[in-house]
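Quick question: what would this complex look like in 3D?
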Amino acid sequence: MKNETQEFKWVGKRPIRPDGVDKVTGRAKFGADMHLPGMLIGRVLRSPHAHARIRSIDTTKAASLPGVKAVVTGSDFPPPPPPVWQAAGEVPVNFRDLARNVMARDKALYDGHAVAAVAATSAAIAEEAIDLIEVDYEVLPHVIDVKAAMKPDAPLLHDDLFTDGVSPKPDKPSNIAKRMEFAVGDIEAGFSKADVVIEREFTTKPVHQGYIEPHACVVDSSEDGRLFIHCSSQGQFMVRQFCARVLDVEISKVTVVPAEIGGGFGGKTTVYLEPTAGLLSRITGRPVKMVMSRTEVFRASGPTSGGATKIKIGATKDGTITAAQATLAYQAGAFPGSPIGPGCMCAFAPYNIQNVNVVGHDVVVNRPKVAAYRAPGAPISEFGVECVIDEIAEKLSIDPIALREKNAARQGTKAYYGPTFGPIGFVETLEAAKQHPHYSAPLGENQGRGVASGFWFNIGGDSSASVHINEDGTATVIEGNPDIGGSRASLAQMAAEVLGIDYDKIRITVADTSSVGYNFLTGGSRVTFASGKAVIEAANGAISELCARAAKLWEIDADAVEWVDGEARPAGDNAGDFEPMPLSTIAGASGKTGGPISGHASLNVKGAGPGFGTHICDVEVDQETGRVSVIRYTAVQDVGRAIHPGYVEGQLQGGVAQGVGWALNEEYIYDKDGRLDNPGFLDYRVPVASDLPMIDTVLVEVPNPNHPYGVRGVGEVPIIPPMAAVANAISDALGVRLKDLPMSPPKVLASLSNGGSRTPS
Amino acid sequence: MAKVVIPAGLSQQFTGGKSEFEINAKTVRAVIRCLDKDFPGIGKAIEIDMAVAVDGEIYHDPLLESVAPDSEVYFLPRIGGG
């Protein structure tokens, strides 16, 4: 494992995270930990039907229950914004749909859809009141399966939804919200050159992000219309914007204080409770606290899509891939907006293929609206691709890593969705995987080994930060991204490196929306990269001021001073003969030289470096029960440069754990009426520690030239390869290729009894 | 003139299937204006839904980025993350 770098004092080291003590002692304040005087408790009534028209809601009995202070339904909210997509950060948002997801209006579109809410003086009263609300539903036919939803005679979720991206524009509504296509070369000519062509169909289930902390907030509305929101989210500025739009208030009247976050993985990049709590608080004039139960998290918050994919790849005998084709259909949930775009673009991105055609469909179904989940969309499409790549390698008797190396994208490769890759480390990950002892270790009976790779773009975006030099020579860094994966540590490390002071002299504050410039949310593995650049630029701004102050004290020109190892020094012999002046001395004299010293930066950060990974997985299959056990796992990834290798390794291990759950166990189970049967961790089975071996990691470092320390995002890629790596390992063990996730014991047993083979017809 | 490429979905919706264009423009904004002049509505669709790759570099909020006469400009769906 490549880890400790010697060229930097703090970058590449493994200091203790600044928030560590608070988190291990219980002092950290999460979403549900906020209490305000006079606070009410809010609860939500949710639809028991997967699809139903709401004829009427009678709240009379609930409202008259002693202790109930307010009852709201969709009609109490401001009219939803216009039904148009708007650029709102990382992906477009349709605020009409967002508002209708927060609280149903004329129709309930999934089991768990919010239809009413109450605020009361206690949780018991609120829950009693919920039971007193009478809703008259007209139950409608529902559809959950993505292929079924695409059929012309499928139950329609929205009468005004017409397929986008086709010509001529349809005159009939459809559950297919959008069609998109990416194509290069001549796909048929490419397949005609191939000696072997393999086409397979795959399905993946929607899976939940599985964060430990349920959604939670406290909202306090003032008499003059201001909203104070304390909540757990992946972005306080996102919450501010979304609540302002849903409740029709000016952004300047909304202040969002970020709580510590107990996991997000993309699932906290939108709002569910906050607008409702805000409305209840506005009506009652009292703070309102709302916390989801685990059941509500499963029934009402966004998982990622389930998908149906068809993958076709052709290659010549020497392993050159000549053509690749994919047809993808992703569940969007109740409203359009699945991650079908990145699913299309990522599918074949690890490879340099001249003839590619990818068609994607965004499909609404009667399930909760999907939310982002690590590398949104990519695991679904790349699962099938990596399985077919493995099958081609087997058919051609080529080592699967060698086949990938032969076709790997490299610097200068033009991706089929447009960009030309700069410095990337895919080949380096393949090489490291091939050389790893795991790859040549012997296997036992009923054991198999699989390999798979993955790609994700990574992003930058708007980031603001301030660095304040304190009078005792310490520094305070103000930034605006909730810390999910250790970003306080990585940002402090970079600030320490730039300022030339010790890591423990820097304190990081994740500020509320009124205390720091705009920051895009914590997502897309952007914070250490993009907010890191903002912190570096702010620190450099502070250094410029420190040099200017030293120059004043020395009575020389500011440009005759340079900053080295945390102290000002004369830039050369002509600058004068002065002893170096440490930061603490300059800071202590700041009042005499012009006042407080600080640096600020607000940037739209560009130049995110793409990430690639290659995983090796060993499984053992119990042929009597069908249980698949992952017995060894190695994740190799190009991380650019690991600012804090320990937390980078943690990202890789966490992504693998979630991917293994996606591969083997996790799925939503619905009854015939479209009601979720397993809304809890007992029946929705995420891997626990005893299910997994220690996941080994290899950090390949091909620096991103667009970051001062070479950072690439690291949190998305590791969830992509596991599903195919596990499937390929099962195939190696049993000669059976499973194409439907999860590869749970019943499916494994069924495939064995059906006599699966290595070369299915 | 810069080579400009739009995804097939946009081309089917706005340009009758044509996806590649030669456009004389100095910025991404000028490229979008030129496309919208010939294919009304495509500019708004690009503004809402599209990132752009200019000579391999992806910009998520494109507007003022420079475009050279020999540039390759690819519009692509905006990318988020988890």
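Answer marked as accepted. Chain A touches chain B through 59 residues (CB under 8 Å).
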